[in-house]
């Protein structure tokens, strides 16, 4: 996951981009960067770490200009290095800086075409750099003397024709303005907002509406699947659909876990969707366990599951208790020479309030279960704290397939639910019982907020990929994402 | 506020001190340090910033040894510099490292005595350095050829006789062991724990029991007011009361705000105490507003008030809603040249989920109200989000007096409730109505967990200081803590 | 001035580039960088500061590969920022890294053409970036399917046709190899060397032969004016003259001051040339002052003038004395608040050994006189040390015109000899007498080492620029190089 | 070796201490520090590295005050860590900062006494910290109510009675002033200077007179052996001899190598002493080799030997040639994986100008020969450059014994001349012939500048230690200084 933002303002824009990135930080804490246009110059500052650590006063003060883009990165498969912090930049044509959230599934083909046909060198493993060069090439090809909006829309159409996958992008073209576009399925989110100041009208695009909120921009609408939105340097807004037969199918995992609860995505409140997930889950529990479920307390595993847990508790008529306290300042793990037993990692992240567990039947709630390692440790922690029975509810269905559109998930072989029945997972986790949300209920929980939404990318639950995908690509991903592969890369 | 921890272990102790400090980090994010005994050497590493930023692998790996202390600092009045990161160290006598949480009220006198009588130079404004030198001097005076436990207890008694204020301290004496002690009122907390490993028995002392939990230590008991606990290098535990007429009166603000909910302080669960605060507050609201209070939702102001809000909501029979979302990655504020209107600071910290406010009567709950600036902005934010009526509840009584025992509060003149009636505060905040906890109810909420507790330091609510205090001292504090004074110091 | 180096080796090349840059460091201490080819990747590390400060183990260990280039920068007019550290990089076509020593005189024209015709964005004020893009464009234009040597030579010919000025360049083209070339006058130096190892034959190009010496490469020859030398990835060496009517006219200032004495440039030993400068100067002194010149000691102003001073002293039959000691560790100048009189800057750099001056007639020798500020202070220092008479000799003629081919000299208005007769300079410096080398003698001192050399760029002495130059360009340079202009840029 | 400086000024003193340290930097490049008195505060900044790297604007601007001391460190045996950067500080009594150049030979005894009798903890291996604590203890013992000059002189007398070795020290006592003193043999140098400004009279003490020169202080005299000089905060100067039977015996190696040529030590010009060393050496060569020595050129090994080489060349009637050029920017050695043959280290430091060697008989001159490794490589380099015969002269006698008074020399077993005759060394170095200065000639070369000097510490040549020394101490030193021991410590 990554967070992206772009603003065409009327006054200096760097501190707004900075503030916007801090509220998108949940989408990526690995690296951050900002690029602005300062007269004829591109100003670019990026680095590894949190937004607040990458930027200092000196860094921000160099980012002069009223037009800029920002990016925060969650490392997806194969993109862990420093060099791959975004925005990326190419100087030909025009000077283009580029911020991207998502992942392509035909990167290898494009990478090859890029060099063989276009002589463009891609220097990293990042498919963001590939996508930037595809865009750059198509703009270069279109340009006949001067760059018109028509050429830009045509170039984006060409990008849609060549690239396959999930991508939400903002390009900063020197001397021209911002170009924002989403893939033809609208897998990754991108929202457009407006602010009117004394100096004039300003536009912003961002991964989530919270970034607009914090800056006082009003949300206008989502960028449509396959659409390109241009905001010129002069502040003019233009938009055009650039993909034939675009089929809206956003990633449902945004609602489950990725997005902030206070965001609106595709006109659906993430918060409300999560409340509905809790309600649906309660219905299922009542269905399966009956009214005499014996649950004494619903305990959310902080922080994401709190919303679903609260509606679930209310629907069950059971108090919700904050029995697990998160350590917000967790640091690195240091291993001292000669040290024996290691503090278990979940103990460093979470602490149980024993009084809420002792002699109780507790229902632990999490948004989803991926590897299952943490869930297993928390269930054990609940037992150690004296719980009589420990039940476990997942607000999402079993995660059985990798995500290939930009969410960093482990290889399928490391997903606890891959190839296991619910009963087998229940046993593996050591829960007294385990309940998963049904996929239809999850879909309902989201679409109930916007009935125009009919399709989603639900691949990590269903194994069905909306863009289609080669078996070979999935194999490569599997190989690249395994822990063993990652460790090897890191030590290289 | 500060967090302190000390361990006498059987194997390397630095990573445990590090982990312990990360769970005490809520008590101070300004600076951190660790000192260990490595054979005949004291190893010390400290610096400004969060624990995770101050320590890297190289730093931690130098902190060899199985005995050590750690400290994290919240800047109290006058202690903002780098030089004042703790532990402090003096080389005479023995080599003593020292970590302290609290504040003295007779620092000036002691500082003078230290130099005139004892020729000890105090190089900072920190009263922790003063207290260390008082202890060092008394140990030096007592030592006749070799240091016995009796001498140590006598020296701590002398410290109690000379120092006035709130202090919980851990001293690391080279070649001897740890000495932990609390002031005769037990104002600041300090808890003792034990862990039995394959290599033998280990002891730890820490500001809060959560630090013991994370390390797998079992909480034995609180260090008593006026008591000194010795843990020798050999692992022997000794304790003795060292203050005549010690009267137990812990700081009640620990329960309101400072401590983590999962801590036990004086055998009282902070979490349970906060649940009881919510219940008492609900009773008062029902008493004052009647059952037709018209509240549609209880909305906690994250994070501390969540516990009280949940029991309050339950007692009122009203749903609790997470209508305010906190930005966990908030960064610095950058001001760009020529920039107009500034993003309001509360907007960068909190975002309202409009759906939870629109056309509703909401009760905002906070743990306490200090300056009132943030509360006023949040009330406005609730109105902007469409709330019909905005009510406000404080789980603590009006804060009208400065804290002088180590909690960094503004000068009295900057407290919104100082010199104001509740009605006047209500008006100043712009709330439709405002309710404060009664002091008796607050006291009950805590003592209901441990009936042996009879007295508290409640000075910030009542103006009564358990140690007594000079009017002149209060005046100095007032002058030093004002924003103007702080800005001046910072720019110096 | 800058130093450049490139190697096509048989094994890892980064540490050799690093070592090579340290011996070219006298050509530029402002910034440094290295780029290598690691498989399909370009590895690039650069930054402000000395080579030894820019590179650490981690930085160097990432620079994998057996082909690479390096650069160290002396800030020329307008190129002071961090962004302008070299090598520069463009990704289209091929991926090209570029290191350049020199300065163009038609930058503005090229910059304009680059954008208008080629849509290439130049993001800095550096004419190195312009030159790289000219080369990139010409390569792109030439490439028809695959890049042949013929295309490369043609592209370099086009660069020579478009660019005017002094330039020695090394380009690293991914998938192809190194391209090294010099401007058609050969103003800036570039030398080619070869090393045969067990793994095969290796080639290197560098600004000065000392960089070859330190790495054990044998000097083959200088790259010729207007020539392009290709060293392919496979280790093949090709060369071709690419400029019609190239006229050899190297910069004579290299021999006077810039180059290391142990370098061979155009088959002339810099050391020997300086010895000859001393001899010629002695002849002139004897001519002008007669054998009864009364000089008691010749004292070089360290370090450059030492060689000329030694032959001068020998020819005069007077002892040379190291009466001025240089402080090799000079640091920054800190100005404390309220501080009165400042230590004079030359005092911090040089210290006089009084015994060598007291009651003596001393002849101070410097390689050249630019602003005259330091010379004046040293003459005063000699008087303060008790000298009876202080004479001053410059191994070069009066510097009266700016250098525009890559040597950072002040604006003409700040040159002490500009618009002044020798007598006026003598007076301005406060010398008892002053002697300058004659230009013909300087030229003889160099050509005596290689009689094929017939012409030089002697513009800073003669005002004649071998490339021709617009009056407008000179005016711009004058404006940009004045101290006032520099201070303004720095504070921006 | 270390460099020390102290100033009692009338205005801010930090930038003067900084400038002074930069000209003392040749005495130690390993670490640097400055301490000043800012009202009642001690300001201290120190760290590893060169003076210019340790101090930045922020660091210096905190060093307020008109009284301060500075230190730069060359790592002596066992003092390589960061913690051991000086000045050291103790807070009891008074607050004392301390800078020391030298080495004690009874450290172990004092260290033990310090703890057993005085309870003072010494936290490092540095004997400077021991010496500071001895002084602190003696001041504490003497102080009866207030600190008089008499007490201070008595305390220094006690230090002289307890400490044995070479030491030049400056102590900064808060509220009192500076105390400067040298051991009773005056082994390490310390010089006193004075400056009169508009604000009044200022005093400075420093290791070498060059530090006074650069700051515009006039050299008054050397601090005498066993003397203590007090400069009070009020600017009063007092001095008293504090050691019975002090016998002046300064370290002769200062003249050979350590000191800057422009320093005056014991009223002897180091520069002149070196010229005389060259003359004496010429006499010996003429004696041994006769007037037909066949030497074509004298080539100094830069930089120290240049002075002696110039007088030697003149006395022999042979030209001196700068045939070896030093690389002033030498950096770290990076070893790349898979790399074959390493560049020889001397090649990275020195480059030969072949023309000066080819077919010549050259006499290489160095100030002294310690390990011989570099000398051997340079001789080989001369042969590689085509020299016919390579002769070698050392301006000092054979170094056969370790220095134990603060000069970092290798263990005796690693000295090439230890246990070898001159013929054996000649052979080991591969020289055609080798000549060493005679010890009597060396002594004459120094005493000819000040006939009051009668005795020196010449231990590294003669094995006679002026302070006397235990065999056991020498064994420890031998063990500690071996390369193996150093590598082990560094990797710990």
From TrEMBL, chains A, B, C, D:
Pfam families: GATase_6, Pribosyltran
Cofactor section: Mg(2+)
Enzyme class: transferase
The reaction(s) this protein catalyses: 5-phospho-beta-D-ribosylamine + L-glutamate + diphosphate = 5-phospho-alpha-D-ribose 1-diphosphate + L-glutamine + H2O
GO MF, one example: magnesium ion binding
Domain (Glutamine amidotransferase type-2): residue spans on this chain: 2-234
Pathway in which this enzyme or protein is active: Purine metabolism; IMP biosynthesis via de novo pathway; N(1)-(5-phospho-D-ribosyl)glycinamide from 5-phospho-alpha-D-ribose 1-diphosphate: step 1/2
Gene3D superfamilies: 3.40.50.2020, Glutamine Phosphoribosylpyrophosphate, subunit 1, domain 1
Catalytic activity, EC: 2.4.2.14
Residues binding Mg(2+): 304, 366-367
Active-site feature positions: 2
GO term, biological process aspect, one: 'de novo' IMP biosynthetic process
Entry's cofactor comment: Binds 1 Mg(2+) ion per subunit.
Lineage: superkingdom: Bacteria
Keywords, alphabetical: Glutamine amidotransferase, Glycosyltransferase, Magnesium, Metal-binding, Purine biosynthesis, Transferase
Family statement: In the C-terminal section; belongs to the purine/pyrimidine phosphoribosyltransferase family.
Job of this protein: Catalyzes the formation of phosphoribosylamine from phosphoribosylpyrophosphate (PRPP) and glutamine.
Name used for this protein in its record: Amidophosphoribosyltransferase
Underlying gene: purF
